[in-house]
């Protein structure tokens, strides 16, 4: 999406990183760039306002729901498995280029073979 006007920060960059901005996960410098863009660009400001309203609605309606313990455990185990695979692939790639592709193929086939929960 683009409003058709030239901006210091392109509309596509703003929209690609909108949730980072909404979640305060950006540097102060980036936040300043985004605020300036919203002041100049009405379509992006509207999109920001819509996404902000959706986040508030979801928080209000679902914010007090507890995450089931077994779900939290499964997600954390999956994150650790992925991190371990990435660490192994990184160390293998620094040791040998052919080992890296072998590890990546193995990780991909393992991942594909796992059933969705």
TrEMBL record:
InterPro entries found in the cross-reference section: Anit_sigma_mycothiol_RsrA, Znf_put
Occurrences of domain Putative zinc-finger (ranges): 11-44
Pfam families, alphabetized: zf-HC2
Region annotated Disordered, chain positions: 86-117
Name this polypeptide is given: Mycothiol system anti-sigma-R factor
Species per Swiss-Prot/TrEMBL record: Actinacidiphila epipremni
Organism lineage: Bacteria, Bacillati, Actinomycetota, Actinomycetes, Kitasatosporales
């Amino acid at each position: 999406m683009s409003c058709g006007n030239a901006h210091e920060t392109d509309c596509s960059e703003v929209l690609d990183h909108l949730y980072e901005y909404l979640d305060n996960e950006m540097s102060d410098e980036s936040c300043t760039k985004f605020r300036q863009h919203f002041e100049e660009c009405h379509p992006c400001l509207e999109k920001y306002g819509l996404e902000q309203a959706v986040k508030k609605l979801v928080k209000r309606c679902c914010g007090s729901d507890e995450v089931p313990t077994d779900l939290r455990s499964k997600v954390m185990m999956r994150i650790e498995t992925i991190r371990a695979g990435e660490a192994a692939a990184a160390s293998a790639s620094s040791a040998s280029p052919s080992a890296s592709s072998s590890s990546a193929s193995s990780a991909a086939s393992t991942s594909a073979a796992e059933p969705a929960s």
